[in-house]
DNA sequence: CATGTTTCGTAGAGCGTTCTCCATTGTTGT
DNA sequence: ACAACAATGGAGAACGCTCTACGAAACATG
C-alpha cells in the first residue's frame, strides 16, 4: 500500500546500537543477558530493539557463538508416533531461546548420514536423532562433534544421552494380556533389518526378546512362533498370510508395530476371518490409527510427548554443560486394550 | 580408537587453500563454480577438499551469499498428506545443492508466524509454506523479504507462487460418483475456521463450493446439506451425529477430509449402521488410512509428490531469478473408489 | 589520599564465507 | 613492436554477530 518503503532492510545490531547510543558490544550483552550491563542501559537497548523490530540473526550468531537451533532427525514422517516426539521436543523448547528444526532423514543409513551432515553444516547447537539406523560408530563420532540425544535405541553410550521406551516390558504386557485372556498360541511379527549390524539395540530386537521372555515366563515356550518381516503394512500382511497358512493356526498375533498390525488386519479380512472372534490382534505404538473406531486395535502406548520433552531437556543440559555423565532414560509403556483382542473361542 | 586425534576441528576454506597452495578466493570460486578458474586449479582444489574431507559451512556462506537451505513450514505433522508433499520437495532438491529443513509450524497463525520468522532468522534462501493459515497480508509481506511458494491456497498473488489441488474439481468428482451410484441426499461436512479472515482461498471453502456447484449441476440443489465442523476425527464425529439425527437421513456423506471421514465412520459404527449398506461415506486426500482394509474409504487422491516437486521447482526458479512473473499451478485430482461407497438401498 | 576492587562500557579482533576490484599474465590485432 | 584485450589468480573488505581484553569510572579500604 505505502508508496515508498525506501529500504526494508533488516535491522542489525549496529542499527540498534546507534539508536540507543551505545556500542554493539553492549547490545550483544543485552541480547545474551550477559554480565556487566546496568538496568538503565538494559532499558534503553530493549527499547531500541523494539522500535526497530530487531531480531537477531541466528546464522550470524552461530559464527562465533550459538545458533540456538536444535536439529531433529526424523526418519519417516509417515510414522504417526514421531510427531508426538517432535511435539514434545518443540513444547519443551518453547520456553527457551532454542528453536527446533526437522531434518527429513529417510530410512537408510546413507540418507540419514547426509542429513546429519547437512544439519551440522548449518551449525545446529545439538541434535536429537529419532530411531537412527546408523552404525554405532558413526553415532559416537557425531556425538563427539556436537551434543546428541538418541531416541529409541537401547544400548548405552558414553558420548550421547538416550531416551527409550522399555520395549522389553511393553512386549511382556501384550503377552500377559493375551495369555490372561486364555490364549496360548500367540505368534509374533518381528522387524528384521536386512542391513548389517546394530542388532541388539534396536527396539524391534528388544520387543522380540521381550516376547520370548514373557512366553517363557508364562510357560508357553513351546508356543513361541516368530515371523521375521518388516514393520510396514505390507510386511504385516505377508507375515499374517504365512501365519494363517500354518497347519495349526495361532489364536493371537502380536505385531511389533501398529502399521504391521494393520497389514495383519487386511490379511485376516481377506481370509474371511473375523476379529476378535476368530483371531486376536495386537500392535505396538498406539498410533492414532489404532484408536479409530473401525480398527480399534489393542496396542502399547508410549508417552511420546514425555519422551520428546525429556530428550530436549537432556540435550539442553548437554549443550549448556550442566552435566558430564551420559544418561539413558527408560520409560515404561502401558497397554491399551481395545476390541481387536478377546478370549479365544474354545 | 586412535589414541591422539589432536585437533578434530573441521577443515575450513583456509585449510583447503593452504593445502592446495592457492588463495581462499580461488577455493571459493571452485566451490561456487564461478568464472575465472583454470581446469588445473580446479583439479588441485578439488583434490585438497577431498583429502581434508572439507564441507563448506552453510551458515558462514549465508553471511554473504546463500545458505542453500529451503525452509518448509508444515502445520501439522499428523496430517498424512503432508509427508507426501515434503517428500516431493526433498526428492527434487536431492538433485541440487539445496537442502530442505522443516519448521514445525503449528496450526495457529501466531505459531506459524513465529516459525517463519525463526527460519528467516536462520537465513533460509526460500520458504515453502504448506497450507498456511496466515492472513494474506502477512504472506505477501513475507514474500517480499524472501522467495516463497505456497501450497494449498487458491487465490493468486503477485508476490509468491502457488501450487494447489483443484478442489473444485475434486469435490465435483465425489458428488458425481455418488450421484452416479444413485444417491440424491448427499450431505457435506465442511471445515469452518473460527479464526477471522482468509475465506475464499482456503481449500475447505473451495471444496464446499465445489460440492454446491456439482449438486446444482446434477439437479440436486434441493438436497444441498452442509454441516460446518472441523477437519478432524472429532469434528467428523459430531457432524455425523448431527446428520444421523435428521428426520430424513442422508444416504451419503461426503466429508471434506479423510480424518473427518474417519470420525463419521466411528459415529456410524456406534449408531449400529453398516457401511456402505446403510450409508455411503467418502473422504478427501486419499491418505494412507483410507487405503487400509478395515476402512477402505472412497477418497480423492492428490498427487502430493508431484505437487511438492513442482513447488520446489518453482521456488528454485524464483531464488535463481529465472522467472519474473508469479505462477499458480493447479493439479487435477482423481477419485479412488473403495468399499465405503455403494448404491443406496432402494 | 594512595590503593585495591567492583561495576559498567567500549575497542577490536575474530568466525568462514563471498565478492568486488586489481594485478599479472598470455594472446591477438595492427 | 605496441596497444588492447581476455583469462586467470589474489587482496582484502564486507556480512552480523560474540567475546576477550582493557579502560574508566565508582566505591570501599587502610
Low-confidence stretches of chain A: 1-7
**Quaternary:** homodimer
Largest interface: A-B, 46 and 46 residues
Strand sequence of the main sheet of chain A, in spatial order? 2-1-3-4-5-11
Average pLDDT of chain A works out at 91
N- to C-terminal distance of chain A: 77 Å
* SS-derived structural category of chain A: alpha/beta
What is the helix tally of chain A? 13
The strand count of chain A comes to 12
Query: What portion of the residues of chain A fall into strands of 2 or more residues?
Result: 15-25%
Q: Quick one: biggest sheet of chain A? A: 6 strands, parallel
- What fraction, in percent, of the residue positions of chain A are helical? 40-55%
Element pattern of chain A in H and E: HHHHEHEHEHEEHEHEHEHEHEHEE
Give me the Rg of chain A, rounded.
26 Å
What gross morphology of chain A would you assign?
elongated
Amino acid at each position: 500500500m505505502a508508496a515508498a518503503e525506501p529500504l526494508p532492510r533488516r535491522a542489525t545490531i549496529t542499527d540498534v546500537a546507534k539508536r540507543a547510543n551505545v556500542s554493539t558490544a553492549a547490545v550483544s550483552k543485552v541480547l545474551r543477558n550477559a554480565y556487566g550491563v546496568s538496568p538503565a542501559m538494559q532499558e534503553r537497548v530493549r527499547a531500541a530493539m523494539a522500535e526497530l523490530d530487531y531480531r537477531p540473526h541466528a546464522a550470524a550468531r552461530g559464527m562465533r557463538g550459538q545458533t540456538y537451533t536444535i536439529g531433529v532427525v526424523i526418519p519417516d514422517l509417515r510414522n504417526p508416533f514421531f510427531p508426538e516426539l517432535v511435539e514434545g521436543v518443540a513444547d519443551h523448547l518453547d520456553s527457551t531461546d532454542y528453536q527446533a528444526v526437522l531434518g527429513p532423514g529417510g530410512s537408510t543409513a546413507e540418507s540419514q548420514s547426509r542429513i546429519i551432515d547437512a544439519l551440522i553444516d548449518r551449525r545446529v547447537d545439538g541434535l536429537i536423532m529419532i530411531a537412527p539406523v546408523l552404525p554405532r560408530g558413526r553415532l559416537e563420532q557425531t556425538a563427539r562433534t556436537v551434543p546428541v540425544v538418541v531416541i529409541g535405541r537401547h544400548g548405552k553410550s558414553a558420548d550421547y544421552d538416550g531416551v527409550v521406551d522399555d520395549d522389553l516390558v511393553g512386549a511382556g504386557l501384550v503377552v500377559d494380556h493375551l495369555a490372561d485372556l486364555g490364549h496360548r498360541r500367540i505368534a509374533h511379527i518381528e522387524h528384521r533389518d536386512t542391513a548389517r549390524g546394530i542388532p541388539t539395540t534396536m527396539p524391534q530386537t528388544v520387543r522380540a526378546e521381550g516376547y520370548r521372555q514373557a512366553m517363557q515366563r508364562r510357560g508357553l515356550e513351546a508356543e513361541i512362533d516368530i515371523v521375521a518381516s518388516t514393520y510396514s503394512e505390507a510386511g504385516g500382511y505377508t507375515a499374517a498370510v504365512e501365519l494363517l497358512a500354518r497347519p495349526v493356526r495361532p489364536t493371537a498375533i502380536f505385531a511389533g508395530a501398529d502399521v504391521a498390525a494393520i497389514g495383519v488386519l487386511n490379511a485376516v479380512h481377506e481370509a474371511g476371518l473375523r476379529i476378535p472372534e476368530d483371531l486376536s490382534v495386537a500392535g505396538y505404538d498406539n498410533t492414532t490409527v489404532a484408536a479409530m473406531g473401525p480398527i480399534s486395535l489393542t496396542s502399547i502406548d508410549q508417552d511420546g510427548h514425555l519422551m520428546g520433552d525429556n530428550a530436549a531437556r537432556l540435550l539442553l543440559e548437554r549443550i549448556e554443560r550442566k552435566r558430564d555423565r551420559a544418561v539413558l532414560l527408560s520409560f515404561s509403556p502401558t497397554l491399551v486394550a481395545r476390541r481387536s483382542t478377546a478370549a479365544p473361542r474354545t
